[in-house]
């Protein structure tokens, strides 16, 4: 005679198999697509970008940029030693006449 544990185990196993088979079908559906990956559906623009001879503007090759040494020194000193904050004076107008 089957015990109580055996009777409850078979419906649980059957339900687990049905759920597993159902979700397994979803995984197969996701494998059928026209893309190499789901993140790469833009093949035309990708091919255009790959075949561009030099995508960088000519100014990007310039290693030396113009600048003033004195100005940079002043900014660096101000950054490392910031001036003390000034106290702001507040003016409160009180109207006594109603």
Structure description:
- It is flat and about 85 Å long.
- Helix content is 49%, strand content 0%.
- With 98 residues, it is mostly helical.
- The chain has a domain at 1-50.
- It is built from 3 helices and no strands.
- The longest helix has 28 residues, at 4-31.
**What oligomerization state is this entry in?**
single chain
Mean pLDDT score: 77
Low-confidence regions: none
Give the biggest beta sheet.
none
Percent of residues in helical segments?
40-55%
Characteristics of this structure?
98 residues; mainly alpha; 0% strand; flat
Topology:
Elements: H1 4-31, H2 43-50, H3 69-80
Question: What would a concise description of this structure say?
Answer:
This protein is 49% helix and 0% strand. By secondary structure, the chain is mainly alpha-helical.
């Amino acid at each position: 005679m089957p015990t109580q544990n055996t009777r409850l185990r078979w419906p649980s196993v059957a339900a687990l198999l049905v759920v597993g088979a159902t979700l397994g079908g979803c995984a197969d559906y996701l494998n059928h697509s026209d893309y190499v990956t789901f993140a790469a559906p833009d093949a035309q623009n990708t091919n255009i970008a790959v075949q561009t001879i030099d995508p960088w503007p000519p100014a990007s090759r310039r290693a030396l940029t113009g600048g003033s040494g004195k100005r940079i020194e002043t900014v660096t000193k101000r950054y490392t030693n910031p001036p003390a904050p000034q106290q702001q004076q507040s003016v409160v107008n009180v109207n006594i006449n109603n």
